[in-house]
Structure formats: C-alpha cells, structure tokens
Specification:
Layout: H1 13-23, H2 26-33, H3 40-50, E1 52-54, E2 69-71, E3 74-76, E4 80-82, H4 95-106, E5 109-112, H5 120-126, E6 132-136, H6 142-154, E7 160-163, H7 173-178, H8 206-214, H9 222-230, E8 235-240, H10 243-251, E9 256-259, H11 273-284, E10 290-292, H12 299-307, E11 312-315, H13 317-349, E12 362-364, H14 368-374
Parallel strand pairs: 4-5, 4-11, 5-6, 6-7, 7-8, 8-9, 9-10, 10-11
Antiparallel strand pairs: 1-12, 2-3
C-alpha cells in the first residue's frame, strides 16, 4: 500500500501507483488511495489474494492462448472491466474520455461513474460504439435518477451498475483531515443543471456532505423493481458480499452481481472481496454472472478470481494511477500489463482458454497441507 519509487519505465501496477503518488496533489491522491477508518479492509483486499495459492497443471500444449471471454453477452479481449471511479479529471485533464478511449482500444468494457467530471454523452462520443456500463446512485429526487438512466440508455450504455452499499458515505479519514472538495475548475459533469456542489464543508469531506444531502438512504431491494420499470437495460447489483444478498439480487431480477466493498471505502472490517466471492458465486448457482472488484493488482489475481467463480474482474485504482501518470496512454499500459500477466499466468497454469480455469486450481494458504493430504481442495 506504500509504493516505492519505480524503475523507468513502469512495468507493474505498483510502479504506476508510485508514479501517481509522486505526481498528484496530496488531497487528490489521498481521495483516490484512501479506505475507510483504519483501512483494515484496504489492506485485506490485496492480502486476500495473497492467501490463495495456485495449483498449476503441466505438460499441456500452451503454444496458443485465448484470453477472450464475454460479459453480459459482450465479447471482451480478456476478463477485465474498468470499474467506475469518480471525478477522473482530478487525475488528468482528459479524465473519463481518456479512460473510455483506452478501454475501447483494449477491447474491454468500461463503467462510467454517476459522479464523473465529464457528461456521460461526451464520454460515449469519445469512443463511439465501444461497450460501456453506467454506474448509478439513486438520488432522493427520483426524477434526477430517472433522467440519468434515460440519458445513459439513449447514449448506448449497455447496463446499469446500481451501487447498493452506499446509503451513507463511509468515513475516509484523510478526506476529513484534508477537507476534501472537488477542485473549483471542475464540475460534476452529469449534473450541470443541478445546484448541488461538492465544495468544502467545514472540517469534513465535501463528498460526505453531498451524499448526506442528496443520496437516498431509504433504498431497498423493492426499488430494483422500480428501476426495472423505467429501463430495459440489465441491472447489476454493485456492492454485494454475502450469499443472502446474492440470492436477493437474483430474486429481484438483477442481471448480474458485482462483489465489491467499494474499494474498502465504506465499511472498514468487512470481508475482502476475494474472500466473499465464492460464497456469492455459490449462492447464485450460475443463474446470473458474478463480477468482482477491489484488490486486483496482478494477472494471477484474475486467475484466482475466475477460479472462485467470477466471470471477470474489475479494477479502479490501477487505471487511475495510469491516468494520472500518462493520460490515455498510461491507462492503456496498465490494461496491457494486466493482460500480459493474465496470459502468462494462464499458460503457466496449463490453461489455453478462460473456461479451463477451474476451482481446483486454487487453495487457501492456511489449508494447503490439509488440501494436499486428503484431496479436499475442491471444497475449499
């Protein structure tokens, strides 16, 4: 979590993190990097992957590797999707448009945040025809919410990622200490006609004040039916970490689930997403696809997540570090680093296509001797 100065040029996600940290103003870096409270879960999201060990198969012809897969019926180059991250123009002047173009060039799906610093129409126009999802917060004023959804639908966004874990904003200590606010030269691109701003709010976070004043904390599963009534787009529940909520998502007609703890920015001490993933995947019984975010930093992390039931993984901070470091090209490089790492990990695990990645390819570190002795790896 505390990157060291990288070599030049950057060759890992961690290298980009270090470069971005050195380049961004403290308030902005802290906003992107911080987790909630003591940041226990921020650390655990990455540590969860480290607790998993791979069981590769050998003497398999891996001269040709096919990393392609599908996400909600869309062909993607490999199982990576760009998660929604807010206010990307704080990282680079081209912000969300640069990210959209990089995802399009890489042949993957990008997800735009409701709180983007660029209007959703402009982002769509930056890479016409590219597959993208729209992340949605439900506002107390449902007219605002409905307008957002209709705009996204009109502009060809392919799905709505409904954030379900933010009835209130988690307490991000650095944002409070820094008095975080959106820099004055930037605006919330999707709300140009709204009076609400994200300026400074006394000795607290401007974002926290914004959420408290505008976001609907009464949101419940019954509101998924309302959302389905106003759009034909598939709805993904973003922020599910338990089997109980996974079953509720299926029952209410969600088209998919994103296992997420909001990059550890909401409830500190919550289970890491890689540890929650299998419980959720088991609960849905293959009825809908399961995606996951939070903690993915290596191609091997993608293999581990797919082995535990994910259709694809999502990244947030890694591409923001790329954006801050070198704009669109930086985002493209981060994506390509992860693609190459994933392809190499597949080859070294004896997988020639994504569907070859099976549950028995990973074991949990603390159970490894037991797994090997009695052959229970498939049950863990």
């Amino acid at each position: 979590l505390n990157p060291t100065t990288p070599p030049s040029p950057p060759v890992t996600v961690s290298d980009f993190h270090a470069l971005a940290r050195g380049k961004l103003p403290k308030m902005i870096y802290d906003y992107y990097a911080s987790g909630a409270d003591d940041e226990q879960t921020l650390q655990d999201n990455q540590d969860g992957f480290r607790r998993l060990r791979l069981r590769p198969r050998v003497l398999i012809d891996v001269s040709r590797i096919d990393t392609a897969t599908t996400a909600l019926g869309v062909n993607i180059a490999f199982p990576l999707i760009l998660a929604p991250t807010a206010m990307q123009k704080m990282a680079h002047p081209e912000g969300e448009c640069a990210v959209s173009r990089a995802a399009a060039k890489a042949g993957i799906v990008s997800t735009l945040s409701s709180w983007s610093t660029t209007a959703l129409e402009e982002v769509a126009d930056a890479a016409p025809g590219a597959p993208r999802w729209f992340q949605l917060y439900v506002y107390k004023d449902r007219v605002i919410t409905e307008k957002l959804v209709r705009r996204a639908e009109k502009m060809g966004y392919l799905a709505i990622a409904l954030t379900v874990d933010t009835p209130r904003l988690g307490r991000r200590i650095n944002d409070v200490k820094n008095g975080f606010s959106l820099p004055s030269h930037l605006t919330m691109g999707n709300f140009a006609d709204q009076k609400a701003s994200m300026g400074q709010s006394g000795n607290s976070s401007g974002l926290a004040a914004y959420v408290a004043s505008l976001i609907d904390c009464s949101l419940s599963w019954k509101d998924v039916a309302w959302l389905k009534s106003i759009t034909k787009l598939p709805i993904l529940a973003k922020g599910v970490v338990t089997g109980e909520d996974a079953r509720a998502a299926v029952a209410t007609g969600c088209a998919g689930i994103i296992v997420s703890n909001h990059g550890a920015r909401q409830l500190d001490g919550v289970v890491s997403t890689i540890d929650a993933l299998e419980e959720v995947a088991t609960a849905v019984k293959g009825q809908i696809p399961v995606f996951m975010d939070s903690g993915v930093r290596r191609g091997t992390d993608i293999v581990k997540a797919l082995a535990l039931g994910a259709t694809a993984v999502m990244i947030g901070r890694p591409y923001v570090w790329g954006l801050a470091t070198n704009g669109e090209e930086g985002v493209s490089t981060v994506i390509e680093i992860l693609r190459k790492e994933f392809e190499l990990a597949m080859a070294l695990c004896g997988c020639v296509k994504v569907s070859d990645i099976k549950r028995n390819m990973v074991i949990r570190e603390q159970f490894a001797p037991h797994d090997m002795r009695i052959g229970q790896h498939a049950k863990l």
